[in-house]
Amino acid sequence: MKKVDVVLGSFYGDEGKGKIIDYLSQNADVSVRCTGGNNAGHTIEIGGKKFAFHLIPSGILNKGTIAVIGNGVVIDPKVLMQEIKNLKENGYLVDNLRISDKAHVIFPYHVEMDRLQEELRKEEKIGTTCRGIGPVYCDKYERCGIRMGDLVNKKFEKQLRKNVETKNKLFEIYGHKTIKVEDILEEYNSYANQLKEYVVDTVELLHNALEENKKILCEGAQATLLDIDFGSYPYVTSSNPTIGGICTGTGIGAKYIGEVYGVLKAYSSKVGAGPYITEQNNEIGDTIRELGHEYGTTTKRPRRCGWLDLVALKYAVMLNGITGLAINHVDTIGKLDKIKLCVGYQKEGKTTMHYSTDMDEIAKCKPVYEEFDGNFGDISHIKQRKDLPENAQKYLNRIEEIVKVPIKFIGTGARRDAMIVC
Ligand code: GDP
Ligand code: IMO
Ligand code: MG
Q1: What is the three-class DSSP state of 168?
Q2: Domain's final residue, options 172, 194, 216
Q3: Domain enclosing residue 14, as ranges
Q4: Tell me, what's the pLDDT at 329?
């Protein structure tokens, strides 16, 4: 029955999900993206080449794996066309790509609205990726969205005209220039022609695969603390990157789900605004950023960096039913002399493991740290956990001990093969 494994982000994104997915998809018949859009950026390094995936499941790099963009994803066709082009130019086939007819389409007015809303928030910006993600999900729930099926079957002009009329009224209120349907129509009709061959009923495709006992890998994007319901609202994205989003974003029932891998880094990072208790807005954070090359895959923004927070990790484990941890950048943290690990929050004189997403509550908490020795040396060639230096083992053992979930993967470098499979 358990034919579906899931990879999810445990913190604020960019934990190295792409790398874990790339590894696991070697044994997957189908690899599927479930939520989010091109706010995601999943990096895979192969043979000195860096691939950044925004929409196409990273599993496409494995010959024979069907790569599905599920119904829960929101698609900017321009970005998708660019990704298809990049893959083809690098000698990869995209014949195995399938796109859900139910996935919603991002139009230029979504991107413009995202930018404008951020501008209007002034000092209280969310720090969105400005890719139109919030506005397109708004239209989906408003029930005026345009889906990939409508696009490729050229049944979208009427709705587009209505939407442009409404958006223009808003743009006028904001004193922003209005947009013209004709400027969009030609471009999107061209995308429709080029993408038609990939658009199918992916729910049927996935269930046919399940019937045939095929192995499916679900590729989470974003992460637990960015979840619209369970994250640090309002500093979140507009979808459910937690386990529920895997089911609603694909049409796969919970009974099929087997392993749920929670991906994390040996430290933590965040892009965008909002609370971040273990942030090191100081020399330590700067050092981690440089050692880990912590600059956004999508927006190139410098990522905020800090210590690993086990209170937040336990929250992610609880919410998602995580069965195994994938911990990346152990090589990076091992370059420091001393490493801190947050093992609880101090609140009103008491230590707690409760993770609150309430901003006022968070403001009252202070991290409780344990300190570890670093200087792991070069670990990129190590293939077995027992061969890791003692300092690394102590750090990893303590994480497992507190979180009570086994570590299944240890990232020892950015390259595809720099990983210990436990
Ligand atoms: P994702 O969005 O979760 O897929 O993560 P990103 O690709 O945005 O960011 C992770 C970054 O860390 C990428 O640049 C990866 O190449 C890199 N990376 C992943 N795992 C490791 C690791 O174990 N060690 C090092 N040094 N880099 C890693
Ligand atoms: P991957 O899949 C890191 C963050 C943005 C912002 C907030 C809302 O690569 O881990 P949005 O554009 O979604 O409305 O922005 O969410 N964010 C991410 N941060 N990694 C991501 O994806 C992210 N996707 C969204 O920085 O704080
Ligand atoms: Mg990323």
Answers
A1: helix
A2: 194
A3: 4-100+199-260
A4: 98
Which residues belong to the active site? 14, 42
Beta carbons of 123 and 177 less than 8 angstroms apart: no
Return the pLDDT at 279.
Answer: 97
Contact 24, 220 (CB under 8 A): no
SS3 at position 263: strand
C-alpha 352/C-alpha 195 separation (Å) is 51
CA 134 to chain centre: 15
Q: Which residue has the CA at smallest separation from atom 5 of ligand 2? A: 128
Give residues (CB < 6 A) around ligand 2: 9, 12-14, 39-42, 126-129, 131, 133-134, 221-223, 226, 235, 237-238, 271-272, 297
The stretch 272-289 carries a mean pLDDT of 95
At 359 the pLDDT is 79
Instruction: List pLDDT tens digits, range 204-251.
Output: 999 999 999 999 999 999 999 999 999 999 999 999 999 999 999 999
Looking at this protein, which amino acid is placed at residue 403? Answer: V
Owner of token pair 């995580």: 322
The response to whether residue 285 sits with its C-beta less than 6 Å from ligand 1 reads: no
Over the range 310-349, which residues count as b (16 or more CB within 10 Å of their CB) and which as e? bbbbbbbbebbebbbbbbbbbbbbbbbeebbbbbbbeeee
**Across the chain, what does the average pLDDT equal?**
96
Sign of CA dihedral 313, 319, 323, 329: negative
Let me know: does 40 contact 295? Beta carbons within 8 Å: no
Q: What is the pLDDT of residue 1?
A: 57
Number of the ligand 2 atom closest to the C-alpha atom of 274: 27
Q: 272 CB under 6 A from ligand 1? A: no
What is the pTM assigned to this prediction? 0.97
Question: For a pLDDT cut of 90, what percent of the chain falls above it?
Answer: 92
Residues 283 and 377 in one domain: yes
Give 279-340 as a DSSP string: B--SHHHHHHHHHTT-B-TTT-PBPEEE-EEHHHHHHHHHHHT--EEEEE-HHHHTTSSEEE
Q: Which atom of ligand 2 is nearest to the CA of 271?
A: 26
CB 34 within 8 A of CB 73: yes
Residue range 112-116: average pLDDT?
97
- For residue 235, what is the domain's CATH number? 3.40.440.10
- 297 and 240 in a single domain? The answer is no
131: helix, strand or coil:
coil
Q: For residues 326 and 316, is the Cβ–Cβ distance under 8 A? A: no
Number of domains in the chain: 3
**Residue 84, pLDDT above cutoff 80:** yes
**Tokens 């400005």 -> residue:** 130
